[in-house]
């Protein structure tokens, strides 16, 4: 059975594993949002950044990519993703139903936010998000890079998100 992984933020542009097939996909019941304080990858414990997570919301959906891992590397891919995504236990590993472009349904691995975790910060005003993202830097680099790469890749896929576009423009202005 193919190991599918749902990419909705940095996995879009930096999966970190070989991908043998990529398909546009939709996840119902979740929204992509900057709702997790990043104390490792895009910030520090002293100056947390923000990263996106899948936040439960029955009224909406999240568009992204279904990424297929090579069959012979599934164990290695799973170990890599757990090391990368579960670094602070703010994400929960879940199998979720995705609808691929064209209507086919598959089950994929996704990392969703734990709203009870101390790093959860859903509902921050956009201006506050921009201020945090503009200054934070973590082990994987500047928080601005994370935002701008994600927005660029979503736009390439034809996924337009008004809040993310506003954030990208505001962060560019703050960084200038």
Automatic annotation (TrEMBL):
Pfam family, any one: ChaC
EC number: 4.3.2.7
Keyword Lyase listed: yes
Keywords tagged on the record: Lyase
Domain of life assignment: Bacteria
InterPro entries reported for this sequence: ChaC (IPR006840), GGCT-like (IPR013024), GGCT-like_sf (IPR036568)
Protein name (record): glutathione-specific gamma-glutamylcyclotransferase
């Amino acid at each position: 059975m193919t190991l599918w992984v749902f990419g909705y933020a940095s996995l879009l542009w930096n999966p970190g594993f070989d991908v043998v097939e990529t398909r546009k996909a939709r996840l119902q019941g979740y929204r992509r949002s900057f709702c997790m304080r990043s104390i490792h990858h895009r910030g520090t414990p002293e100056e947390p950044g923000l990263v996106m997570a899948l936040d439960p919301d029955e009224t909406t959906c999240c568009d992204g990519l279904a990424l297929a891992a090579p069959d012979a590397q599934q164990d290695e891919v799973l170990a890599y993703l757990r090391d990368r995504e579960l670094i602070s236990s703010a994400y929960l590993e879940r199998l979720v139903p995705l609808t691929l472009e064209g209507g086919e349904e598959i089950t994929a691995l996704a990392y969703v936010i734990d709203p009870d975790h101390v790093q959860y910060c859903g509902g921050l005003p956009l201006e506050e998000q921009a201020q945090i993202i503009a200054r934070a830097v973590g082990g994987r680099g500047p928080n601005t890079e994370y935002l701008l790469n994600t927005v660029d890749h979503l736009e390439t896929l034809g996924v337009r998100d008004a809040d993310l576009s506003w954030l990208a423009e505001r962060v560019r202005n703050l960084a200038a």
